[in-house]
Automatic annotation (TrEMBL):
Entry keywords, A to Z: Glycoprotein, Hydrolase, Protease, Signal
Domain of life: Eukaryota
TM spans (from-to): none
Record protein name field: Prolylcarboxypeptidase
């Protein structure tokens, strides 16, 4: 995307998902009250991105009539695809890289994604997948402690 954007004189914008990084809708209290977490949804994120695009088109000279393409990977890829479906009037296309778009109940068995990931790790080097598998015990043990 970097090379293509430069070649096409396109602007790349990386939007931060609410509740991640500095985008805390309720400041330091964003995680203290479960009612605040009602706004931590993919639908809310899509609405945020729609507002951001409108704002950029309104405030950046020459941007008003320029086409927009949503791009993302993994969960971001899901958001890109969903954005194109929900707001087709705002983006001319979406690139959903590594997005598990078929990972829905009754379409694909739940464990298929993890089998694919494990296969990738096995191909990356000897004992890689086994090392990752062994790390889960340590992660679970640490996550169960108070600290």
């Amino acid at each position: 995307m970097w090379d293509v954007a430069e070649e096409l004189k396109a602007m790349l914008v990386f939007a931060e998902h609410r509740y991640y990084g500095e985008s805390l809708p309720f400041g330091d209290n964003s995680f203290k009250d479960s009612r605040h977490l009602n706004f931590l949804t993919s639908e809310q994120a899509l609405a945020d991105f729609a507002e951001l695009i409108k704002h950029l088109k309104r405030t950046i000279p020459g941007a008003e009539n320029q086409p927009v393409i949503a791009i993302g990977g993994s969960y971001g890829g899901m958001l890109a695809a969903w954005f194109r479906m929900k707001y087709p009037h705002m983006v001319v296309g979406a690139l959903a890289a590594s997005a598990p778009i078929w990972q829905f109940e009754d379409l694909v068995p739940c464990g298929v994604f993890m089998k694919i990931v494990t296969t990738d790790f096995r191909k990356s080097g000897p004992h890689c997948s086994e090392s990752i598998h062994r790390s889960w015990d340590a992660i679970n043990r640490l996550s169960n402690t108070g600290s």
